[in-house]
Amino acid sequence: MDDDAADIDPAADRTELEVDIARDVRALTAISEQIGHVFARSNDLRPNDFRALMHVATADAEGSPVSAGQLSKVMGVSAPAVTYLVERMIESGHLDRVSDPADRRRVNLTYTDQGMAVAAGFFGPLGSRTRAALSDLPDTDLAAAHRVLVSVTTALREFYAEFPASGHAAE
Question: Which GO terms describe its molecular function (predicted)?
Fold first, then answer.
């Protein structure tokens, strides 16, 4: 056995990897926020408008559409503020209200075709760059990265839910 290999502390390596991932998530969050601000400015949107669009897109992608009431909670803003925001987003052509097929009394928010086209026009080149950046990585690495991101997202959501102000804490 190589003497250098015997000196490696697996716990230290694991801690270092976890610190690296936390740093990477912060960097990803920071640059994502910067790109979001550019998108908002280039489309005459306010920062909260973009945040709302991200929440709607995420909820749609996860198969759990969001209502205006839920949007108010996840954004931490009042119902009247969300109503005003949603009205602006509908008027600008980004969002629309649709009846929930499972419960017609419930109204969800969804992207319009125009909103999707605007987003695709802006974020399409980012998607191309991301695919190019990932193209040389094996599928096993991508699957592992996906598991890591899902785990980190779950931990963040659980942490958020513990705060009474989040509206999700257990009583």
Answer: DNA binding; DNA-binding transcription factor activity
pLDDT per position as a tens digit, 58-81: 999 999 999 999 999 999 899 999
- Helix (H) or strand (E) holding 110, with range, is strand 107-111
Task: Please give the sequence-ordered ranges of beta strands (E in DSSP) within the chain, or none if there are none.
Answer: 66-67, 95-99, 107-111
As a whole number of angstroms, the distance between CA 92 and CA 43 comes to: 10
9: DSSP letter: -
Which residues, other chains included, contact 66 with Cβ-Cβ below 8 Å and sequence gap of 6+?
55, 56, 59, 74, 108, 109
Measure the CA angle with vertex 141, ends 137 and 144; round to 5°.
155
Handedness of CA 19, 24, 30, 32 (dihedral sign): negative
| pTM for the structure as a whole | 0.81
Pick the closest to residue 90 from 63, 62, 71 (CA basis): 71
Fill in the amino acid letter for 5.
A
Beta-bridge partner residues of 95: 111
Do 126 and 38 touch, CB atoms closer than 8 A?
A: no
Distance CA 118, CA 102 (A): 29
What is the per-residue pLDDT for 104?
A: 83
